[in-house]
Every structure is written in C-alpha cells, then in structure tokens.
Amino acid sequence: MNQNDAVMWTEKYRPKTLDEIVNLKDVVESLKAFLRKPATMPHLLFAGRPGTGKTTIALCIAKQLLGVSWRSFALELNASDERGIKMVRERVKTFSRYSRGSLASIPYALVILDECDQMTSSAQTALRRIMETSSHTCRFILICNYSSKIIEPIQSRCAIFRFSTLKQEDVVKHLKYVAEMEHINLHSNAAKTIVEFSEGDLRRAINILQTSAVYEDGKMINEQTILRVVGQASPKQIQLMLNKALSGKLIDARNMLYELMTTYGFSGVDIIRQMHRELFRLQHLSQKEKAELIGVFGEYDFRLSEGANEDIQLSALLAQLTRFSESRGNSANG
Question: What domains can you pick out in the chain, each with its CATH number?
C-alpha cells in the first residue's frame, strides 16, 4: 500500500494557508488584516458548527505567524479531554507565561484551545485571568460550537468570529477537486448527495467521499453508493412512504416503515429526520400544511429523544399523517 493511501483525506487536503480556505472570505480578510500587524491582534474566539474550518484557520494563523517553528511556540489543546481548572493552571498558565519567542520573528506564543465550550465554569474563570495577565507574551485562539457557553468576561476579551455553514456550491467544488486529485470518478448528483447529508460539514463530506472511493474501488461513485455509505434510505423511498400515509394508506406506509427499520437497520430518529428533509420536496402540499407537519415531526423526534418506543411512535406518526390527509380532504369538501 502506498503511504499516501493510508492518510485521511481530511488531513491530506487540509488548507495550509488562509488563501486555501474554502469560502469564509470575510473572516479570512479580517484575520489577514491582523496578521499584517501581529502586535495588534487580540485574542480570538471562533464559534460555529463542526466542519466549517475553525481549527484549520487557527492552525493557518499559527503557521503564518510563527513560521516553520510554529509547533515550538504554539500549544494546541482540546478542552473536551481536559476541561477542568487543573489543565488551565498547570498547562495553559505555564505555557503562556514562559513560552515566549526567543527569535525576533516570533511576536508571541499561541494557545489554541479547541472545544472550549466544554470547559467548566471555574476553568473558564481561571482562563479569563490568565488571558489578561499574559497578553504581552501570548495570544489565545478559543474554538467552540456555542459561544453562549463561554462566560461573558472571556467573550469581552476576544474578537469573535462566527463561522456559518459552507455554501453547497463551495463544498461541491472542493469535493470535485479532491476527487480529481485522487483520480476518482464522482458523478455530479453524488457530490450533491454528499453535501446534502453532510449538512455543510466539509470534514464529514470529505470522509464520506473517501469511504465511497474505497467502497467502489475505482468505479464511478453515484448517488446509490453514497446512500449505502451514509446508511440512509433513498429519498424516493421516504417520499413514497410519506405520500402513502398522506393519501390514507396507513398499512402500506407502515409496511414500508418496517422494511426500512428491519432490512436497512435505520433508527427511528434517522427516519424522522429524513422524513423532515423530504417533506420540503413534496410539491402537492402548501407552505401552511408543511409548517403544520414540521411541528408534528418535531413532537415525535422529541419523544424518541426522551426514550419512547420507536415502533409505537413512528406508527403513531404515520397515523397522524393519515388523519391529517383526512382532515385536509374534509376541509376541501366543506
């Protein structure tokens, strides 16, 4: 096996510089302005959904700011592994105080703290004080999914950048680039299917592509390949089940439900979320009717998350869709 074949594509194609970042032009331009005058760069807080480039941009900043010796002057930690006050006092405090650059080209050390919204409140309080006292020797780049879980004193000490979900066309373009570099035949519909299931998470999208490439072993990667890899039912199957329930054919819809659960091994939550996704593609329902059904799906998704029986709840959901179609027909007749 070639050594490159064993490399995860998410790492192999991780951008090395800010210019290689997919989308996020406003964020990148703002950060470039800071890097032109490193002394003016404040502590940074990156917030947003997974797979949108937060950690990658932090590493790009470290490489551009600290040069080839960036690993010696940057401390990268994952707060979900060590999220207590002990980590802050023993590792972060020591590094931020003493790991200052001995070279003229190194303006200060960097602490990259990933998933910092998992830190305890006491650890965040200790971190706030360290950020304040060590600003002349160190800068912090804090990364989180939810900025609301970061205490206000820390937020006020940072320039906050919010990372939005990547645009579909940008993810498709990047997937096609990776496929071309790996000499893979990727059907355009397959690329769009990957984007749909990854929900703007570029890391997840690339992982799906790599798994699909191994699955097909050099053959054309099509939509069916992606569905098998991600463990999802065909959108047409879900739409057919919805239409059967909405047309009053409860037993037929329930039989399709059992087939999906037993033959394909899908969980109830997965099926509800696919039903929710396909609902928006049903042309014969009005916006008002779709809005009403979204509330129904939300109720049953909550029940399953609370541990209710999947079989009973999904059957009840289909029954409610059947009643919805009957009430819809009655109102039309009236």
Answer: 24-163 (3.40.50.300), 168-230 (1.10.8.60), 235-325 (1.20.272.10)
